[in-house]
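Why does residue order matter? Because the sequence determines the fold. Keep that principle in mind as you read this record.
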Amino acid sequence: MADRLDLGDLVYRLGFANEDEFLRSLDQMLKRAEQEAQSGGGVGGRAFGEAFEREAKRGVDGFAQNFVSSLGLQTLGSFLGNTLANVFSSGVQATRQFVQDSAREFQSYQLALNVLASSGITDLGGLKKTIAELSAESKVFSENQIAQALAEMIKAGKPAAEAIDFVRSSINVARSEVDTATGELGDLKAITLQLSDVMAGFAIPTEEAARATDVLAQGALDSKLSISELSAAIGPIGNLAKTAGLSLEETVAAIAKLRDQGLSAAESATQLRTVLLALLTPNAGLRESMQKLGLTLVDTNNQIRPFSEILAGIERIAQQGGRGLEYLSQVFGSYSTNAAISLAKSRTALQEQADALRGAEGAAKTFGDQMLAGVEQTKALEVQLANAKRALGEQLAPTRVQLYRDILPPLIAGLS
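Structure:
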């Protein structure tokens, strides 16, 4: 049985100078080659070899000038007739698939660049260099993936410099999001948007993006969640939490504590949101009593009370037994009373955890390194292949235009 040939083998055995010359010529004859090789065996191969020679002599651009003389027409016909019947179909199909994948990879990349250019970026050459550098730094995300994430940030209204900082910080998060069943990494576009939402909610400046990702990474470990799950839960309540005086670290600590009660990330966020809303906008009939008990987030001087101070007040009331629990139920509703009491009883631990999160520098990278241990090299090879496809697609783009515009129409007419 004939050995399977890859693209490099075909190029070498046909005597082309490089893969680009081979692909340009092969694309013109591909369908006819398969038909001849499959239907005519050695005779079909020789016939196709003669057709190949005629095309070469007619000056098809990029064709190797000496391949007929170096291999000999009989050798070429035998190779195409006997070997291609077993190898050509799979080899050429793989080549065709590679070319198609390359075209799609470049098209997707180019569309992302178009979005970036529409934002007013003029130095696309410098931007492409930055994209390549980010891909190399990440080791596991292709230039196309980086470009797509940047485009999403631009569409979200971020300036180019901020978009780059967001994507750079999101890379460590996405590296840690490994699907153990498929080996797929996290969606860099989605994760970048999630990080942007969280930072916008807490009004965290772009230059602190790395700190935010480290807090989320450590918080994910503490709450036994993925970073994406934690980010998706916190994003919608970030603005409310900040209004209530909570920092990102305090909010993450609260979510982690509610997770300890068996709640999901989304349920934990919903419970925290209900508690904060009850404290921020109390029921009209309870406002005065809550004010006296120190349970409103805004005091009589219109200042925000520290959350830990309010939690202490909740715990004091809960310790009164039935009457206290009944009052808290009126304040928070039956749905969130347990959440409020749980946070109140854990206020010291919450403060300690929030302090620990402030010192979580480097957590996102460490998390990503741990998740990719043993597979990073494989992922790096996949990225190199994707980048190669993108580069090949870019090189082939003018040729494909010429193929569809100048070569295929007369060739189809001639073979009809």
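DSSP finds 20 helices and no strands in the chain.
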